[in-house]
Input
Amino acid sequence: MSQEIQQTQTTCPYCGVGCGVDARQLNGQLLPVSGTQTHPANFGRLCVKGSNLHDTLDHDGRLLTPTMAGKPTSWNQALNLIADKIQQVLNSHGPEAIGFYGSGQLLTEDYYVANKLMKGFIGSANMDTNSRLCMASAVAGYKRAFGSDTVPGCYEDLEQTDLLLLVGSNTAWAHPIIFQRISQAKKNNPAMKVVVIDPRRTATCDIADLHLALKPGSDGFLFNALLAYLANHNALDQAFIEQHTEGFDAALTEAQQQCSDLEAVAQQCDLPLADLETCFEWFANSPTAVTAYSMGINQSATGTDKANAIINVHLASGKIGKPGSCPFSITGQPNAMGGREVGGLANQLAAHMDFAAADRERIKRFWQSPGVAEKPGLKAIDLFKAAEKGDIKFLWIMSTNPVVSMPDADLIKRALKKVELVVVSDCMADTDTAAFAHVLLPAASWGEKNGTVTNSERRISRQRGFLPSPGDAKPDWWMLTQVAQRLGFEQQFNYQKPYDVFIEHARLSAFENNGSRDFDLSGLAEMTEAEFEALAPIQWPINHQYPQGRARFYDDGHFYTPTGKARFVSNTPALPQKASDNALSGLTLNMNTGRIRDHWHTMTRTGKASVLAQHISEPFVDIHPTDAANAGIKDKQLVVVRSELNEILVRAQLTDAQKSGEVFVPMHWTARYSKQARMGSLINSDHDPVSGQPELKITDVSLSPARVDWQGFILSKADLFLLNDDSQRQDFECEYWTTGKTQSGYFYNVAGTGTGITLLNEIKQRLTAQAADQHSPDNQPSHNGQYQWICLDDNNQGHHRWACVCNHQLLALMFIHATHQPLTLNRGWLIEQFNNPELDRDTRLALLTGKPPGQKEDPGAIVCSCFQVGERAIQKAIAAGADSAAALGEKLLCGTNCGSCIPELTAMIKSYTPAQADELATELSES
Ligand code: SF4
Output
């Protein structure tokens, strides 16, 4: 048999860094992926999410066939129904009653066809995208300042700069490869300074020379004050301001009126004056500077003003268009930028055109469409509010999960119930949003799809398929094309393959452009299909002037405004208002939200990789110890986080990395993975008036200990939620559960009131029913009564430990204790036992003690996912003298593969105290 490895060069589907990935197969078997050495985004590196992509490619949970009203159907029937409904709504209610909601997960080709169908042929601009939640304010800020949505710089600027301000960005976890590039650059050039501006002390602070833990929402004061400071300290680039900008005097006057008193600004931002002055002094005196910003700026009710406050200081100091100098918005999603190129937002048209008559007429001629939408459509929040009012009759949701990710997430549920026909195209069958679909369309997934994506630095990369799609799954561009053809637009939607779509997209960008628009792919518009297949990553624009792409814009001082000059945008900073009745009702803490290191968005993909569940396996709330003490909350206790809209149940993590008065909750847990942890259900729909981007960082909440009488941990080979008569999902009845994958099954953290024995009996019943259902060929139960239950019950204490064994193999393991704390068990060893082909007597006995015979040490929470190194081993190594991440790597290998855990390793070293060493020594001697 041939031993040839087949390799496909593709692009990671997670964050906006856009890393190149080499997917490999040997004789049809998937091998671990690796980073593409030549890809200019990552040069061979991958973070822990990217490194585990091959583990997410199974067909578990995939949507395999179109369904209508929950019943499988053919593509033809589903597509006919969709086209008929669109036509009927058009006839009865007009185009404004139709909505599309897309995603930064779509490929550019999918996005292009969706946008064309909606805005050019259905005739409404009600096509918005979850990128509205991600970077709409950055887009609006760029357009106000530059006249176009242009990211001015490139990743090399982050390495070449003398001063990097990272604002509202936990780069170490959210954009890990960018973080690694910056870390390396700082090692190469120790004079390079990094300032982290973020209310939380995150892993990113590992490389910070200065951390400004400002008050949430006060960024506008800081950057306006910086503008005033530059003027007062003779640090303006007068020549650049005069030749290439307009509106400077008004912006400076506004900034000086509001923010020239540094002491007052320091107070408003809750920062030490000296730190603020240090940061300003560095900026003023630094030959180059980059301000990189992401969700902490964008996800704000004043996000656009904040973006312009940042851009203003770069224009004022001329720190733009030069190597190592620019205001740089880092996008969250893998193809947020591609969506912007094709007009995926409701207030854009394709190829960076707007709703001006000339643009609409140009697009209409190019598309040969009956007409192009006359006005911007409904942005995400307004789209779903219109649906709740009954104004949207048809809604197609593509590759996204708004029931989890949108603010006021329960409004989304109500809205979807009002829409006459909800279509959801997704690769997964059981997302929270899919539950509301009348029609489900199986979408091709990463590894199967073909097309392009554009990363944060405008670099277009090919995403290439290397696996066949399972079942009837199809790419989104194909579904949309089929619907368009059924609506009578065969000629204009005659695409056979992604290449056809991309070429049309490139030609539209070039159509009557002549340098008037920044987005120009004319250099790719005549590519052959073979050239498209081989396309190497390249930054737009690609045209006769920049045939190999352009790293930086504005090096020529030309902007895309009518005058060709950049615009300063005056803005008046304001702190988020706290409703006084919220304070009265005890909602006195502010909830911030964001990502964790090893999960992506709503976990539909990362939830499949068991390795990624080991770093953090439960939804949590980070809380300062003082606030926790005030609320009577102990570390690791389950707590209720309550807002004016809803409440969730998550685990408390006490940390002084969190400012007092602030808490942090991750965004990832859905109803698929946790009983009650959708943070979106807590957040109201406040949003930026310019960009429409929701405020996801400021929500008044209160915390209180959850009322639970017992806690438990359960492992099972089979998914216990699916063990019932009709294989319909049936969650546990208890007050709290979270679940995830292990290497050989599923884990469940559980808690509840009363006695946990009820849950144990329910699970036992499910397992027994399953055993009865499994028949051998002679129609006898295959286990033949060999299910063995090993039980240890202490009814007085409320402690129960049960194991279910069959044919000497472990099927389930359950620990329930009457306690408010999670159980101390060697979870790694217990999980390993599910792969043990024959449990011996000692191991069986040890199972219920929760640790191996001979008391092998519990590794604790996994910090390094690549080499499965737990916090206990790391603490021991630190106690033994390892004083750097490199030293820990030498000893334990941790941090030596993808490097995603290095900031945590460093933080553990920094926070390690002799008292901890003593504690550890005592514990070890006792064990
Ligand atoms: Fe993927 Fe990680 Fe690269 Fe982001 S940084 S694109 S998640 S490998």
Remarks:
- Residues 357 and 374 are 8 Å apart (CA to CA).
- The chain has 31 helices and 34 strands.
- The two ends are 52 Å apart (CA to CA).
